[in-house]
TrEMBL record:
GO terms for molecular function: DNA binding; DNA-binding transcription factor activity. Residues 114-141 form a coiled coil. This is FadR family transcriptional regulator. The keyword Cell membrane does not apply. It comes from Cohnella herbarum. Gene3D superfamilies: GntR ligand-binding domain-like, Winged helix-like DNA-binding domain superfamily/Winged helix DNA-binding domain. The lineage of its organism: Bacteria, Bacillati, Bacillota, Bacilli, Bacillales. InterPro entries: GntR_C, TF_FadR/GntR_C, Tscrpt_reg_HTH_GntR, WH-like_DNA-bd_sf, WH_DNA-bd_sf. Residues 9-77 form the HTH gntR-type domain. PANTHER family: TRANSCRIPTIONAL REGULATOR, GNTR FAMILY, UXU OPERON TRANSCRIPTIONAL REGULATOR. Keywords: Coiled coil, DNA-binding, Transcription, Transcription regulation.
Amino acid sequence: MAFQKIKTQRGSEIVLQQIREQIQSNLYPPGSKLPTVVELAASFEVGRSTIREALSALKAMGWVTIRHGGGTYVSLQTPGEDGIEPTAYNTELLQEVLEVRKFIEIGCATLAAKRRNDEDLAELKTILDEMEAALDNEGESEQADFRFHLLVANASHNSLLISMMESLTERMQESMKESRRLWFFAERSSAEKLLQEHKEIYGAIEAKNEELAGERMMRHLVKVEKVLYVKAPQGTGE
């Protein structure tokens, strides 16, 4: 079925709406596979990045699932007839968690650069290796991401900071999962960029550059925050 040709301005929103309508009309029933990014881009006459953005938003809204290297599939359970689109995490609460993380984790990274020892570096390097090995496995990569941040806190050797990070464990895991859904994590290039940011934080800690470690952690968390503002679907509490 041919899709309506559109202009690139606000293209991702129009693409999202049309694909969602196709799903709602049962043209693509639950469990069915959508056309590839290349095919959709050709149908809509837009760039692939526009298609990826629309698919990422549809994933965050619960309409589709994206498998690494396996394509995009309509969710087996799509949003209800009442039009309410579920989100895994309240956007306002996610924002609050990110605000707290910035205050705590920048301090953790700064102190880690000052106090880290060889054992801390070895543990951080191991986690980075695990993240790299899990680029095509969202669940494993997500867990490695979380452990990396906890290990940065451990490397600060400040018991209060470590305790505060541990007290945020559940909320951090939930917020990371949701922010990764809103990010274009289904694309390997996005996972690689995220990995690179963690490597840069590690590099500053390894070099004992306190200022740079804090700056890189801030840059990382601010990017996550921007993703939340830009990609979160409407009606999620913004």
